[in-house]
Backbone:
């Protein structure tokens, strides 16, 4: 989960922010890749993947101005929160 948040949110945003000075392009590239991987999960899986990556990437972009480390921690913690909620919902 942490690796997924770093690979699809933190890394693309930071790379695009450093080299192209446009972190939002990195967020879009990471989101497109993440959604592309979950494409075959049906429309519910696709909707959930889109919602998750939108919230995680949005939180990371909003927090990035204060501290990159704090933004990365927020992205990872949001990813853990989504997975915890999903597992609890499946167990109920």
Residues:
């Amino acid at each position: 989960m942490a690796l997924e948040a770093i690979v699809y949110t933190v890394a693309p945003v930071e790379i695009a922010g450093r080299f192209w000075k446009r972190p939002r392009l990195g967020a879009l590239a990471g989101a497109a890749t993440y959604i592309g991987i979950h494409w075959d999960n049906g429309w519910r899986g696709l909707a959930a993947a889109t919602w998750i990556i939108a919230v995680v990437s949005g939180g990371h972009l909003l927090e990035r101005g204060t501290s990159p480390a704090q933004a990365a921690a927020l992205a990872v913690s949001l990813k853990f929160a989504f997975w915890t909620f999903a597992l609890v919902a499946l167990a109920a």
In short: Residues 68-91 form the longest helix (24 residues).
